[in-house]
Design brief:
Structural class of chain A: alpha/beta
Strand order of the largest sheet of chain A: 5-6-7-3-8-9
Largest sheet of chain A: 6 strands, mixed
Number of helices of chain B: 8
Strand content of chain B: under 5%
Number of helices of chain A: 5
Number of domains of chain A: 2
Low-confidence stretches of chain B: 252-258
Oligomer: heterodimer
Mean pLDDT of chain A: 90
Number of strands of chain A: 9
Structural class of chain B: mainly alpha
Chain lengths: 203, 258
Amino acid sequence: MLRVADVHKAFGPRRVLRGVSLRAAPGELVGIVGENGAGKTTLLRILSGELAPDSGRVQVEGRIGYCPQHPVTNPELTVDQHLRYFAVAYRLRRLDRARALIDRLGFEQYGATRVRHLSGGTRQKLNLVLSLMHDPAVLLLDEPYQGFDWETYLRFWEISAELQAQGRAIVVISHLAHDVDRLDTLYQLRAGTFEQSDLGSGR
Amino acid sequence: MNAYLVATRYSLLELARNRLAVVVLVCLVPLLIWLIDSVVTGEPVEFVHRSTDTRIQALGHQVTTLGCVLNLVSLLVGFAMFTAAHRSADFDRRLARVGYPRTALILAKLTMLVVASATVSGYTTAWTSLHWAAEQPLALWAGLFLGGAAYGAIGLFLALFLPEELEGTFVIIVATVVDNALQNPIINPTADADAVLLLPGYGAMQVCTAGAFTDTVPLTSVLLSLGWTAVFGVVALGAFAARTRDRTPQGVCGPPGI
């Protein structure tokens, strides 16, 4: 469960968020759309704890999985080395879930490959796996399918639907019109505040 | 402990994969020492060793070698630490935010600094010893180690705010060259200006010179050099700790998965 109430954030004189509120219940898929520079990424960084809001309240129940917009990986390390690093961070004894996700996203053959030598799309797949491998209760995904081919894009939405069915709350930043029918709730970020559209269960 | 071991292993792996630094170390050190031995005069030169307040007479090519290898060690370790910290900055922050013990990450960086300084200094001391015998080879190694560690810490510090690798590398090159030139016994035989004391490489140069030509080790110079390492190291690693401090939203159970 994620609850956000009246969050404000400014960078110098530029007020990016002016009282943003939203809610994502277990099993709910929430989309956030907005023009470039509208503050979508700033909001997600606040929700993940990466950035502090100037004011407002963010409440999260359970662990968060945050997939940043651009892959944050180490180019000198291999895919497997990334998994081992994050297993320590998440206190995971096994990598079964990470391996299963890698299989689903179709890059199991790159375990021993350094990230430096991966394509942009494969880096993004790894970025996504690193944010999901500890089975978080709340997922914050910032345009997580950038660079994916069509098949992987569809597989991403399959995984999202499964996670929803398992009761995970998912917030995804999207700018693609054809994603809209997959969402339960759509928030449009304009001038630092939300306009909400209740889409029902259109999936 | 496991977190420290994993972070250290991968940090050292990352360091070893810095091909440019490895090639410069392996090839340039012997080439430089051989060139100096071949080109620079073997006539004796006299200079004041400030920290022990003694006059030292040494062969010109030996004094030149000391200045150049200290310069190279400082530059190499500074460059290696800057690039390692710069390339992994966002990744380290992500790891820390998802719950990786920050102390383990910080200790891994310190281990990387010590290992890089010790290795580069050891290799350089070995090549120097093939050409001429220092009075105290261990002290010569220690002096080079101190110079490497000081500039390694400066590299970590510069990685905090310099946006590009080129800028960091340029700053480290300029700093080490100026530092070395101002206190080089041949260029500045008396080196009696107090400002020289403030150079990050001063302590290291004093220890190197003592190790090469005397039977003493100036402890104050050792401490002075360690002071530079400590100041820049504390600022750099303190900034890392501050940047990754917990801003977890209320009600979160366990670390977030960034």
